[in-house]
## 1
Amino acid sequence: MSSRDTILQRLRNRSGGELVIPDCDFSVLQRPLSSVAERIDQFEKTIESVHGEVHRCTRESWIARLAGILSCRGARNLLVPAAHQIGRALRDSGRDDLPELLIYDEPIGSWQPHLFNEVDASITSTRGGIAETGSLILWPTPDEPRLMSLVPPIHIAVLEASGLYSTFHEAMHEQNWASGMPTNALLVSGPSKTADIEQTLAYGVHGPKELIVLVVE
C-alpha cells in the first residue's frame, strides 16, 4: 500500500467510511436578474468610485467621443491594435482630429523605450465587465499585449454593454472559462493605485494615471 493509500485509509477509518465530497454550492454568488441598463448604472457608479471614467456612446459615435477625450487631454498619439476591429475602425475613420495612431508591432526589447517614454495613450478591447466590482476583463493577445493596458498614462477600454455581467462568477460561467484560459488574464478596476507609501492610497504611481471606459450601447 502506498503512502497515499495509507493516509486515505486512515481518513476513512476516522470518518467511519468513504470520503464524501459535498456538492459545490454557488448560490451565495447568485444575484437577482438585472437589465443591461441596470448593470451599466452599477458598473459606472462602482468604477467611478475608484477614479475610473465612463462615457456612454453608440457604435456610430464612439470614435468622435474618443477624439474629443484625447483632444481635451492633449494626447499626441494613441497606441491601437493592428488587427482588432477597433484599430481598423480608427485607421479607416479618416478623422483629422485623432492623434497619431501607433501600432505595437515590434518585439518589446526594441520597442520598450518608446512605449514607456513616448506613448501618451492606448486603446484596447475588453472581454467583458463586472458590474458588481466595476471591473474590466482583459485577455491579452499578440495583437493586444498586456503592456498596452499597463504602461501608457491613459488607458482607454472599449466595453460592449451586452458584455456586462453582474458578478465575476457569472462572467466565468457564461464565458465558459473552464474550457481554457490565456496564460495571462487581467481584471482592471480603475487606474493604477498603491498604498505602499505610509499606507496612503495614491493613484497613478505606477501604470496608467487614467482609465477611461467607452461603453458602447
## 2
Amino acid sequence: MPTDSPLGYDVFVADPIAQNVTEPVPNGDRRMFSPLSVTLVHGERDAVLIDPPLTSAQAEAVGDWVEATGKNLTHVFATHGHGDHWFTAGVLAHRFGAQVVATEGTIKEMHRNVALRPVFWDRLFPQQIPDAPVTAVAVPGNRLNLEGHDLHIVEVGHSDTDETSVLHVPDLELVVAGDVIYNGVHQYLAESGDGGRDAWRKAITTVEELRPRRIVTGHKNKRLDDDADRAIAETRSYLDAVDEVLAKHDDPLGFFNAMLERFPERLNPGALWGGAVALYE
C-alpha cells in the first residue's frame, strides 16, 4: 500500500465455528462455518468497520479489537446480505455509536436473510446470533468519507449471492471485497446456478478494473496475504473448475470428490459439499 497514505487497514479473522449438524461432510470432516474476515479501515482518529461477523461471541471479540485501536468508529458497512457478514452490525454500531450502512440492494437481501433465520441461520447456530433488525441505510452517491478521504461503495451485482457490493479505498489501492473474491477457502456455490457463475465472473472483472493491489476477502485463510492479483486469479480458476467438473459428474458426491482433489489446500470442505448438493437439486 502507498506509504504516504494517512489511511490504513487491519483485518480480524474469526476462526471457523461448528455448525449444529451431526452428519459429517463426506470426507469425514465436521460441518463447520468458514472463517470470517472483518476489516477496519482507519485514519488518524476515525474508522469504518466492514462486514461485521455472525455470532454474539464473535462480535464481542471484534468489538474489543476495535476498542483497542482507540479509533472512533463512524460507520459499519455490509458488502452483501448474507447474515454472516452483518447480523452483529447493530450490536457493534450500538457499542460505538456508529451508523450501519449498505446499498439499497443489500438492504433488500438483509430482509430476506432475516426471514430465513428460523429455518437456516438459527438452526445452524442456535442461541448464538443476536437480535438483528435491519437498521442499515443507504448513503448518498454510495460514498463514505473518512477524514476527508473517499471510500467508494461499488455495486457489482451477483457474486455468491444477489445484490453484492465492495468497498474501494483508492488511497490504499485496496478493495474490501466481501464474497466476490475468496482467498484460500472453498467458495459458496449454492446460489451459483442458472447463470450465477457467469454473473459472478462479471463481478470479479468489475473488482479487477478498480486495479487494487490488496484485496480483503470475506472468507480467507488467515495464513495467506491480501495480494489482489493472486486472489482474483484463484477465484476465477475455482469457478472455471466448477464448470468443468459439473460437466463430468452426474451426482454431488462425484463433484465434491473431484473438486476436493483439485483444491485440497482450500479450507472448509463443508462449504463445498453444501454447494454440491444445491447444484444437483
## 3
Amino acid sequence: MKNRLREEILQKRKELSEEERQKKSAKITATLRGSARYEKAETLFTFISMDKEVNTYPLIEQAWQDGKKVAVPIAKAKGEMYFVPIDSFSELKKSRFGVMEPEKEKEESIIPKETDVFLVPGSVFDQKGNRYGYGGGFYDRFFEKYPSIFKIAVAFSFQVMDFDLQVEAFDKPVDCIITEDGLIGGF
C-alpha cells in the first residue's frame, strides 16, 4: 500500500508541467515568506529540490537576499544526515545518491534552533502531518536526534491525502504543511 501510493503520487508529480510546478512553488514560497516564523528565523534549513519537487531555489535566493543563512543536507551511508551552510549554488555538486549537495565535512554542520525554518521534503502526506519520504529514513533519523525542530513540509496539494497514512512508530510527522492552496496545521 505504502509503496504503491508513493509511486502513484510521484507519477502524478512527474506529470506536472514545468509552468504549473513553478506557479504552485511560487505560491508556497509566498505563504512561507509571509509568515512570522520566516521573519524571525536566522537560518533556513532546506532541501535542494530535484525532479518535480516544490522548487526551493527561488526561496533559497530570497533567504540570502533577506540576510538569512541557508543550510542544506548532506546524506551519508547508514542513513546519517547533517546540515551545512552554503553561500552560493556553485558549492553544490551531484552526490552519489543523485542529489545536489555541497562537499563539506560534518565538522562544518550546524544544528537548527527552535526558531529556524526547517523544510521537509516528501512524497505523500496526510492532514495530521504524517509523511512518506522516499524510503531512506534520513529525515526520521535526524528528527529522532533533534525532536524540538518545528518541521514544515512543502508539497503540492495533490500530495496531501484526505485519509490517514499507515505509518510506523519511527516515522516522524511534520508540524505543518504548506501547499499552493495554503496551510495545513499550526504555524
## 4
Amino acid sequence: MSPYIYLRALKHAEHTVFCVEDGQKTYFDSQFNRILAYSSGQQVKRSVLQALTDYMNVPLAPITFNYNISANNELENKEPWSPCDPTYVDQLLGGWMRAKTTSVKSDKKESEQSKENSVLKRRSPLSISAMRPLHPLLAGVEKENITFDRSDRPDYHPVNVRIKGTEKLLTEEEIEEFLNKNNRSLSRRTWIPDNKRTTGLFIYDIAIDLRTLFCVSTNQHEPEVTKETIASLKEKGWIESENVFGKCLVLPKEEREKIIPALADALIDWRITSNQARTFSLMETLAVAISDNANTIASAIRAKLIDDGDKPKAKPIVDENAGAELYVTLPCASYILTETESVLALDNAKKSLIDKMMAFDYEHQI
C-alpha cells in the first residue's frame, strides 16, 4: 500500500479576491503572456486548518508573539513561537518551527537541555500547493473602481482637516472659510481605483504522507518535541512505535477516528477565510480526483490546448478513465461537458479519503 494520498480539486471562482495585495495576488505566465491570480499554499493550508478546527469545534493552537525593546524604547518584532504541541490538531497536521531566541547574550555555558531544545521543527504531513488556474486561458484578472461612500448622511459623518505636518485640527469655521476662498468642497466619498478581481477555474493539489500523519518523532538529535512533551504524550496514551524515519509516538486510535472525518471534510470543503470581505464567492468545488499516484490526478483534472487560428483556446477536461478516482459535482456541468456528475460526489470523495486514512496501520509501519 502506498503511504501517500494525492488529491486534486477543481473550484470555480466568480469575480472575487483570494488575498489582498494591490487588490489581488497575481503572477505572470510567460508562455501565454497573461497576469493570473492565485492563492498561496500557505493561505490554502491556513484555510484547511481553520475548516478542520471549526468542524471539530476546537481552537487553533495559541501562538506567542515576541518583541524586544531597544535602548531607545522602540519595539522590535521577533519570531512568533508555536507551542510545538501535537495535542493541538492544527499543530499535529500543520507542523511547526520554533527557534530559541534570547535577547541577552551570556558567557555562561548553556545547559545540555537548552542546547537540545534550541530548535524544534516538525514537517507537516500535508504538502499543499497554491490554488492557481487550471490553465492560463481559463482564468483572468479584471480591474474595477470602487468607492467607500457615506455621502448620504453628510451631517452624521464628521470630516477632520489638519494642517499638513501638524496635529492641529481646523475648526468648522476655519474649514468653511477655506472652502469658500478656494471654491472647494469636502466629500464623504473615497475612490479606490484599480481593484483587481479574478474569475475562472482553479485547482489545488494536496499530498498526505500517512507515515507521519499521526506520528511524532522522538529523535532528540533533530527534535520535533522536547523530552518533557514526550513524557506528557506517553501519559496521555500515545503509543510507542517506529516508522521509516525512526522511533516515534502514535496518536491513539480513538483520537485518530475523531480527526480523520474532520480532515477529509476540511481538505475538500475549506474556503478562504481572510481578506475577502469586499467580494464574496462560493468558490464551489466542481470535481475531486484522489489517487496514490500523483500523475493520475493530474490527468484526471486537466485542460487541453486547442488551436483556433490566431487565438488558441483551452478546454477543461475531467476524465474518469485517467486512473484516479474522480468525483464530479452538479455545478461542474455548467462549465465542462460531463455525464457523470452526482449530487453525492463530495460525500463520496470524503468517504474515500476517510477509508484510505482509516486503513493505514499507523502503529505497525515496520
